[in-house]
Amino acid sequence: MQSTLKTDKDRPGNKCPVPFARNWPFGCFAQMVPDTYFPFQCLIICVACGVIGCPQFRDDLEYEHSVEYSWNEPQVTQSFSLFEGVAWDPAISHSVTSLIRSQSLVANQRVLDLFSGPGVVAVLVASESPKQVVSLAEDEISEACTRYNVAAHEQDSIVKVQRLDPWAEQALPPTERFDVILASLSKQANNSITPDIRIKLLLQSVDSNLELSGRAFVICEPGDMTDRLRAACESEIKELTDATNEPTIWKVFEIKLMAKSATNLCYHGNAGRPNRVRN
Predict the structure, then answer these.
(1) Which pLDDT belongs to residue 271?
(2) Which pLDDT score, from 0 to 100, does residue 79 have?
(3) pLDDT, tens digit (0-9, with 9 covering 90-100), for 166-217
């Protein structure tokens, strides 16, 4: 299912509770009005409602980033905004939706969204009635973009956004447990989180943060990224299997621990800690 892209550049602009204010100073009531419209029309609307400039705002959101483009997804009502500097391919959305709907995967589950990008996966998962979504952003601008899109879709009560520390031994402490892990792997990573570091953090999260009955999935860019992931899984005694039968641009895999005796322990990297082994 193709997304409809709008290539106009814009800014989130003035602070506004929704949190849109695309045509400052006319606030959130101007958000759906193209910039080419005469601004006086927007002013009349705002004066009539008594909220010129939309004085309320969200202190936890950032509004200074340029928007590279916005697009719509049929599963949700609001549009998504991609901040400049955030790597994302809208084709990932189709892969995510096919996965979570075909398997009724996330309803009433605690879900980890690893490498959030602009927060699209978190919002799509949140629309399927999970218990909670923890979205880990890979850098400052991805965190800002994720928070913005989560707020735009009014999913703050379900989605908790955090920033990933690329130098940490693992993405989250072992006390954080999830029923489902979803990760998006792309070569378009920032300089501090290379593809290999992303794969390492993903596999560590499968070992440390996944419930024994949980499932881990990765939406992976085809080609070199898939080859790297497959090699890393083999070295850590994990199996990578196709998770969907639908043709998608981005491959969707499930990561499983290979069947091992409970007496056999597989040691992870240089950390010297045994990984979980499932029978």
Answers:
(1) 43
(2) 93
(3) 777 788 999 999 999 999 987 765 556 888 888 999 999 999 999 999 999 9
Helix (H, G, I), strand (E, B) or coil at 110: strand
- 19 cis-preceded (ω within 30 degrees of 0): yes
- In 3-state terms, what secondary structure has residue 218? strand
Look at residues 182, 2, 153, 184 and name the one whose alpha carbon lies nearest to residue 80: 153
Q: Which range, 32-36, 48-52, 95-99, 179-183, is most confident?
A: 179-183
Q: Report the distance separating Cα 39 and Cα 24, nearest Å.
A: 10
Of 80, 62, 154, nearest to 117 (Cα)?
Answer: 80
pLDDT tens for residues 86-118? 988 888 888 888 888 877 899 999 999 999 999
Q: How far apart are CA 202 and CA 268, in angstroms?
A: 13
- Which residues lie closer than 8 Å to 162 by C-beta, 6 or more apart? 134, 135, 136, 137, 143
How is the chain split into domains, by residue range?
A: 1-72, 85-257
By CB neighbour count within 10 A (0-12 exposed, 13-18 middle, 19+ buried), where does 241 fall? exposed
Q: Which fold has domain 85-257?
A: Rossmann fold (3.40.50)
Report cis status (omega within 30 of 0) of the bond before 25: yes
Question: Residue 202 corresponds to which tokens in the numbers above?
Answer: 């993903």
The two structure tokens encoding residue 30: 């101007």
Residue keyed to tokens 């072992």 = 174
Instruction: Say which amino acid occupies 23.
Output: N
DSSP symbol at 170: S
The pLDDT score that the predictor gives to residue 101 is 82
Spatial separation of the C-alpha atoms in residues 61 and 63, rounded to whole Å = 7
Q: In 3D, which of 91, 66, 64, 67 has the Cα closest to residue 6?
A: 67
What single-letter DSSP state applies at residue 98?
A: H
Provide the pLDDT for residue 154. Answer: 93
